[in-house]
Amino acid sequence: MRSEPESEEKRIANGQRKFSELSAKGKITVFRDYYLLPILLVLALIAGIVWFIHDGITNKKTIYSGATVGFDVSDDGNIVLTQGFIDSMGSGYSKKQAVLSRDAIMKAQENAEYNQQSFEYAFTVQISAGEYQYVLMDKKNFEHYAGYDFYSSMDSFRSNAFNSEVFYEGDDGHAYGICLPERVLKKIGVEGKEIYLGFTVNGKAGELNEKFLTYLFS
Known about the structure:
Number of strands: 6
Structural class: alpha/beta
CATH topology of the largest domain: D-Maltodextrin-Binding Protein, domain 2
Radius of gyration: 31 Å
Number of domains: 2
């Protein structure tokens, strides 16, 4: 039986002909059939390695999150409450981050589709979901949101290094917030306001709350 003559592509693949001797069409066919897939696989592998390295270097896990309500901190104050806190805990936290939602509750505009109560409800849902580990509020807002029962007890802090500070007490006599003294307000760029810090029930921050309070009041 007479065999079919080998194509240009098969001859070059078998080393019987140089790539440079092929026609333009033959070069394209050889490249597509024998080289394109391996090159794409190599490029995909390189892209995956680059992404993995980039992700490991730049992406950080959020371990602590807070929100301000009724006021805002300065840009330097924002750094104090976020990166400054992480840096204070040492190199073991270099792949972690703390974040702050500044003036978390939006102000409803007249004739807006959503009223102020809607924004407040959305905020309490975020608290209930454990999105924030702590809140910073002016006294009026702190008292208002005390009715939602999402503040965690701070009684343990009244019997240690913070026993000289001013605490916000609920109707049950327990402490649920601590007033920021002037030295702390200065750190975060706030003047002329009475600001309270409260930890949230669902934040599940554990010892990070104590670390944060110690760092902030130091």
